[in-house]
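Annotators were shown the component list below and the corresponding predicted structure, then asked to write short factual statements about the assembly.
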Amino acid sequence: MADQPTATERLIQGILPENPVYRQLLGLCPTLAVTNSLMAAVTMAGAVGFVLLCANVIISLIRDLLKPHLRIVVFTLTIATFVTIADRLLAAYLYQMSKTLGPYIPLIIVNCIIICRCEVVASKQAPIVAAADAIGQSLGFGLALSSIAAIREILGTGALFGLRVMPALWPDWVIMVLPPGAFLTFGLLLGAINWITDKKKA
Amino acid sequence: MSSENQKTIGGLKSSNLVQAWLVLVLAMGFGVSLAGVQLALGPIIESNKINETLEKIPELVLGNALAAKMATENQTLEIAPRQVTVTKAGRAKFYSVYEARYQGDLKGWVVKTKGQGYADTIELLLGLSPDLHAITGLFVLDQKETPGLGNKIVTDAWRGQFIDAPADRSLVVVKTGAAQPGEIDAVTGATISSKSVTALINTAIGDLRKPLTAGTATVEEGGKDNG
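Structure shown to annotators:
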C-alpha cells in the first residue's frame, strides 16, 4: 500500500487541506447547533476527538478481521460505545456543560466524520496512521467549530468564553447566537475560504 | 483457512451467526466495558443530579425573586428528603419528595418525577404549594427531546406557564393559545413532548395528593434517589 498517505500527511491534511467541515462538509449538525458559545464548541470538538481517536484505533487494530458486508455494523458499534463513554464522562465531570450540549453528545454516533474516517483510513491503514488521522481531523473539526463559535459569541453576546471583549456600546446581535446566526456565519466563512482557495489556484 | 477446512465447515461458515462472530464478540466486550464505566461514574452523576436538585429547591418553592433575596441574605430553607411510596394498580411507585421548611413553617414540596417523553425519559422537578393547591415551579432535570422542537420544554418561557397553575385539577395541553387557568400551550411542533411533561405532572400530583396532605401515613423518612 505504497500509495496510501503516511501518518504525517494524514495529520496535516485533516487540519486544513481536508478540513472535515470546510472541505468535506461533514458533521454539520453539531457545527451549526452547538457553536453559539466557544466553550460549548470546544467541549463538542473534544468529545468528537475522543470518540474519533478511540474508534479509529480500535477499527484499525481489527481491520483484517472485518468482513465487507458487516463493517458498518462494527463501525457503528464501536462508535456508539465510545460516544456513551464520552457522554457519561461529561455528565460526571462537566455536568452543566453536558446539560447545555444535551442530545448533541449522543448524536455524535451519527456524526459522518467518524464513520467516514473509519471507512477511509482506519479500515485500511495501521493504527499509527489511523491515530494521526484522527488527531488531524479532530484538530480540523475543533478549528472549524471554534472559528464559527468565536464569531457568533463575540457578535451575539459581546463576550468570549463568557468574558466581555466588546466595548460596552456594542449592541449584541442576538440573532448570531440563535440558529440563523449559525447558518449566516458558516455560509460566509465557507464562502470566504472557497474564495481564498480559488484565488490561490488562479 | 485451507480449502479442506472450508469444505468441512462449509455449512457452518455460511451461517449468519458464524459470520457475525466479530460483531458478537465486540458487542460483549463493549457491553462489559460500558457496564464498568456506568459502575464507576453512575454515583458521581447521581450526586451531580442531587446537588442540582437541592440548588433548585428554593427557586421552585419560593419563586425566583424570593429565592434570590434569600440567597443574598444568606438564609437557607431546611430541606428534608423523603421517599413516598404510592401503590397503584397493585404496583408500588416511588417518589422522591423534598420538604422545604423555613423556620419550621412548611413552605412547599418539591417532587421529582420521570417518565417517557418523545425521545427518551424526561426527568422533572415540580414545586408545589404546601396545601397542594398550586404549582410553584417546574424544572427539567434531564431530557433528550428533539433539538429545536421538543427541547424547548426547558426554556423559561414554556416552563413559566406552570408557575401558579392550579394543582387541583388536571392540566390540559392546548394547541391554540391557552386562555383559562389550567391550560398549557403546547410547544409548536412538539405536542408529544408537551403532553408528556403535563401528563407527568398530573400523575405526580394525583398520586401524591393523599400521602402529602393526609400527614405521614405512608411517608418514610430518608429519601433514596429513585424518583
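Statements collected:
1. Chain B touches chain A at residues 19-20, 22-23, 26-27, 30, 33-34, 37-38, 41, 44-45, 48, 52, 119, 143-148, 151 (CB under 8 Å).
2. Confidence is low (pLDDT under 50) at residues 1-7, 216-227 of chain B.
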